[in-house]
Design brief:
The structure holds 2 protein chains of 2 kinds. In chain A, 34% of the residues lie in helices and 26% in strands. In chain A, the strands form 6 sheets. In chain A, strands 6-9-10-3-11-12 form a 6-stranded mixed β-sheet, sandwiched between helices. In chain A, strands 18-21-22-15-23-24 form a 6-stranded mixed β-sheet, with helices on both faces. A 4-stranded antiparallel β-sheet of chain A has the order 2-1-4-5, covered by helices on one side. Chain A is an alpha/beta fold. Chain B is an all-alpha fold. Chain B folds into 2 domains: 274 residues, ABC transporter involved in vitamin B12 uptake, BtuC; 84 residues, no CATH class. A two-stranded antiparallel ribbon of chain B has the order 1-2. Chain B is globular. The chains are: A alpha/beta, B mainly alpha. Chains A and B meet through helix 11, helix 12, strand 20 and helix 14 of A and helix 12 and helix 13 of B. Bound molecules: adenosine-5'-triphosphate and magnesium ion. Magnesium ion (MG) binds next to helix 2 of chain A. Chain A: GO terms for molecular function: ATP binding.
């Protein structure tokens, strides 16, 4: 009893994790160089840095994904030097990592997922009663009100994220690592998740939080460690934390403006969608898009705001080669003439490109290198008579690598080995090379650092300046407000508002959504 | 082996060390070294029989149909599929050829073209289910394997049909004519060696062409400011390849020269190397196997592409069936059985990945030769057929384990 009190008393400054002089090299890249990190009991420690700075790599070293011996330096957890050889080793001492790509089995239930690899069983026979009641308890802790029998595939991303955390809690976690947990969450879900981390603090669970959303980081973090080019730059304390301060430290200079300026030169109408109706691919009687009209003019940057699940991605993908949906009706016009967009090839030929929000599943061939990924949507552009001109292709790949500032050892690096932000730039390069008239960007800056965001906005402005039309789907309202000439607001498959860029505000967008909700209800 | 992978180690502008390049191409070099090691081993184990001109010619003849099917199988596997039916299909097409030529006295050329058409049709009918109706290729071609095995029994009525017209036999038994006339080298006491001059000329021409093209492509890379591999490594590699080709053609020349099938096979290999490495078609197949959804969203008509892959596979299986029938000079109901296993093994030994998106033509060809040389060598040594199977199985497993181990280490 005495002991416990004593240790509780000093818990706020007891260091539980120390990583010292971590250096990790990949062929051709020094991903980490002499990095130091310490985490004290019950704190939320954020790690920030540009894309490719080495954040995920550092966490993979910590959790044993990169086994002891494949890096230099020491990992000391609760006073013991650790030699992890895999995730199970780190989990045994209470370090649990939740990767950005969720690792749940979609066709198993919530309860089965929570205890996967950690089954409540006697002699190999699962005790279903205990599984169910145990899962119930854990779901209560993370505030997820779902039946443990529900299949994970029926949950949205936000709820899946909570299941992941419940799964971590089942393992008696002491240090929880979250790699960009909120990148694909709506604001409400993000807040719920961050509140949860704060609640964990009280139970003495420390968290390491990696995020590019600096507002969130500055809200919840007790300390922030900044990485740049694989090196520790500094660790800030609570009282020093501020968004501008973080940015300056991350990129090594201060960024005055988050959005590059632009004088719009808007021409005639380029792209129109009229009375667009799309049905759900499985529940074919359900309308997902309920008669949408929208237009983009040459040189115009148009945004679509809306909550998760409002049908924005479905709208874009159904227009782009009918890659989503069933029973699609309506008309698409380019330059006033009706065009056939019934296959991706036809849509691309009509001058439309769509940059997916899910780069790993829909955007990249992860086992191939940058060069091949950049040219795949426009092979005709680097070939003659079906024969690829290797040098022309190499020139294109190097050119786009430079233009979008992809950080890699060369264009021969596998895209699967790139950091998340740089993968996004490869997908963007691919579509830039296809030379579209209309570029549809779906969450183009998800998981991208501030500096790179600025670069992407600059590219968008340049494309608009060339007389192309840009249609951006984004869940980050400040971003839409910062770069768009016009913003559509979408809710439940309908356009419920249209605002001029200079008149729009977060409140007006939210009000349009709420008003739309009233109409549909 | 491939300039593509060689360069992957080197950032443009950066100096790459020979060691790094060898490391990053360990798999390619390892495969060649394995083939050479196996050859040297059997050369000793068979007391020098393996490299005898007549035996080397035999190895080519015995493996030509496996290699030809391995080319198609490579596309299938890179595309993320599998084809279990190729053995049965080749047997069936051999049977059709026998019926057409022996029973209906059809002109061999016309019959052969018809048979290739039949192969394409079979490929199309299987490809349809796989590509457009998304039935797993494993199931569709497993069904095809049974169907065509049964059909060849049915149309042959259980008999063997033969012999084939002599013109057709030439496909597998013939050699290219010696347009320059043979030369004879006196050997003192021993019997003089007669060499097939045309074969020698072709061998030398091929080596010169290889040297010329690799030099010009190197020069053009450097001219455009991109890095080529270090000259020493390049020189050693080219010298070894050249020496091997010269040795090989010399050995063939001292028997009857280049067999006709080898001409067919070499042209096909060249065409498939070209397709996979240089054409948009090949690139799309790799993209399809690497991530089908992303390929589709990049504007690739994934369904049509899959369909074509199976049509090509069907035609190659048909060609292999013709060659095998011509070699045996009869069509038997058992022809082609089990070929699919050798073909698939060759492709996997050659470094292709079960998941698709990875694999090289050269690897598949070398994989087929590794299997072929082992078959031949063990037969000469008198190893029983049962143990031959065991050893081949272990080699396949070993090759794939090596691959996976290598990948995890990287
Ligand atoms: N397996 C690998 N092989 C080669 N290079 C790699 C590998 N994994 C990571 N890298 C490189 O290491 C560097 C650090 O990558 P890491 O994923 O840690 O970045 P990050 O900070 O998490 O970036 P992001 O914010 O974009 O996720 C990058 O330059 C990346 O290209
Ligand atoms: Mg990362």
């Amino acid at each position: 009893m005495q002991d416990r009190l004593a240790s509780n008393g000093q818990s706020m400054n007891k260091t539980i994790l120390e990583m010292r002089g971590i250096t990790k090299t990949f062929p051709g890249v020094k991903a980490l160089q002499d990095v130091n990190l310490d985490v004290v009991e019950g704190e939320i420690h954020a790690i920030v840095g540009e894309n490719g700075a080495g954040k995920s790599t550092l966490m993979k070293v910590l959790s044993g994904v990169y086994p002891h011996g494949s890096y230099e330096g020491d990992v000391v957890f609760e006073g013991h030097e650790c030699h992890f050889h895999g995730i199970h080793d780190s989990e045994r001492v209470g370090i649990v990592i939740i990767h950005q790509e969720l690792a749940l089995v979609p066709l198993l239930s919530i309860a089965e997922n929570i205890f996967l690899g950690n089954e409540r069983a006697r002699n190999g026979v699962i005790d279903w009663h205990e599984v169910r009641s145990g899962a119930r308890k854990l779901l209560d802790m993370v505030g997820l009100n779902e039946d443990p029998e529900t299949l994970v595939t029926h949950l949205g991303t936000g709820k899946q994220q909570l299941v992941e955390i419940a799964k971590a809690l089942a393992k008696e976690v002491k240090l929880l690592i979250l790699d960009e947990p909120t990148a694909s969450l709506a604001e409400k879900d993000s807040n719920a998740l961050l509140d949860l981390l704060v609640a964990f603090k009280k139970q003495g669970i420390a968290s390491i939080l990696i995020s590019h959303k600096l507002n969130e980081v500055s809200k919840v973090a007790d300390r922030i460690t900044v990485l740049r080019d694989g090196k520790t730059i500094e660790t800030m304390n609570r009282e020093e934390i501020g968004e501008d301060r973080i940015i300056t430290s991350m990129v090594g200079r201060s960024i005055e403006d988050r959005y590059p300026g632009r004088t719009p030169q808007i021409g005639e109408t380029l792209f129109e969608v009229e009375n667009w109706v799309v049905h759900h691919p499985i529940h074919t009687e359900r309308q997902v898009i309920k008669g949408v009209d929208l237009a983009v003019r040459r040189g115009e940057v148009v945004g679509i705001a809306g909550l998760m699940g409002s049908g924005r991605t479905e709208l874009a993908m159904s227009v782009f080669g009918r890659t989503y949906g069933h029973g699609i009706t309506g008309q698409v016009r380019m330059n006033g003439k009706p065009v056939d967009t019934s296959s991706v090839k036809k849509a691309v030929d009509a001058g439309i490109a769509y940059v997916t929000e899910d780069r790993k599943t829909y955007g990249l061939n992860l086992i191939d290198h940058i060069k091949h990924n950049v040219t795949i949507a426009n092979l005709v552009g680097v070939s003659r008579g079906g024969v690829i001109d290797d040098l022309a292709e190499l020139r294109v790949a190097n050119d786009y690598r430079a233009r979008t500032n992809i950080r890699s050892s060369s264009v021969y690096q596998l895209t699967g080995n790139l950091s998340g932000g740089n993968q996004q730039k490869v997908v963007l390069s691919k579509w830039l090379f296809a030379d579209p008239q209309l570029l549809i960007l779906d969450e183009p800056t998800r998981g991208i650092d501030v500096g790179a965001k600025y670069e992407i906005y600059t590219i968008i402005n340049k494309l608009a300046g060339e007389g192309r039309g840009i249609l951006i789907i984004s869940s980050e309202m400040p971003e839409l407000l910062g770069i768009c000439d016009r913003i559509y607001v979408m809710n439940e498959g309908r356009i419920v508002g249209e605002l001029a860029g200079n008149e729009a505000s977060q409140e007006k967008i939210m009000r349009a959504i709420v008003r739309g909700e009233g109409k549909t209800a | 082996m491939s300039s593509e992978t060689v360069n992957s180690a080197a950032a443009p502008g950066a100096r790459s060390s020979v060691r790094a390049i060898i490391q990053s191409n360990l798999r390619d070099y390892g495969l060649v070294v394995a083939l050479l090691a196996i050859m040297v081993f059997f050369q000793f184990a068979t007391n020098g029989t393996l490299f005898k001109p007549v035996n080397l010619t035999n190895i080519v003849l015995q493996n030509s149909y496996i290699i030809i099917m391995a080319l198609g199988m490579l596309l299938v596997i890179v595309g993320g599929h599998i084809d279990l039916s190729v053995g049965s299909v080749s047997g069936f097409v051999g049977a059709v050829a026998a019926i057409l030529m022996v029973e209906y006295d059809l002109n061999p050329l016309v019959a052969a073209i018809l048979c290739l058409g039949v192969g394409a049709l079979i490929g199309a009918s299987q490809g349809f289910w796989i590509a457009y109706l998304k039935i797993p290729s494993f199931i569709v071609t497993l069904a095809g394997m049974l169907v065509f095995k049964g059909l060849s029994l049915a149309i042959l009525g259980g008999r063997s049909v033969g012999p084939f017209p002599p013109e057709f036999q030439m496909l597998s038994a013939g050699f290219i004519p010696d347009v320059f006339g043979p030369i004879t080298i006196p050997q003192g006491e021993a019997a003089p060696i007669t060499l097939h001059t045309t074969t020698l000329v072709i061998g030398i021409a091929i080596v010169l062409a290889i040297v010329y093209f690799s030099l010009t492509s190197r020069a053009s890379r450097e001219r455009h400011g991109y890095q080529a591999e270090p000259f020493a490594l390049f020189a050693v590699k080219t010298a070894i390849i050249g020496a091997l080709i010269l040795f090989f053609t010399y050995t063939l020349a001292s028997y009857k020269g280049i067999p006709n099938v080898m001409v067919v096979m070499s042209i096909l290999i060249a065409v498939f190397v070209f397709i996979t490495r240089m054409t948009t078609l090949g690139r799309r197949i790799y993209a399809l196997g690497g991530n089908a959804k992303a390929a589709q969203l990049s504007g690739i008509k994934t369904e049509r592409l899959t369909f074509y892959i199976f049509v090509i596979m069907g035609m190659l299986a048909a060609l292999a069936g013709l060659i095998f029938a011509a070699r045996l000079n009869t069509a038997t109901p058992k022809a082609g059985q089990g070929f699919e296993l050798d073909v698939i093994a060759a492709v996997f030994i050659g470094g292709a990945s079960m998941a698709g998106g990875v694999g090289q033509v050269a690897g598949a060809v070398i994989g087929a030769f590794i299997m072929g040389v082992m078959n031949n060598g063990m037969s000469i040594m008198g190893v029983n057929i049962d143990w031959q199977q065991v050893i081949k199985g272990l080699v396949l497993l070993g090759a794939v384990v090596f691959d996976v181990y290598n990948k995890n280490k990287a």
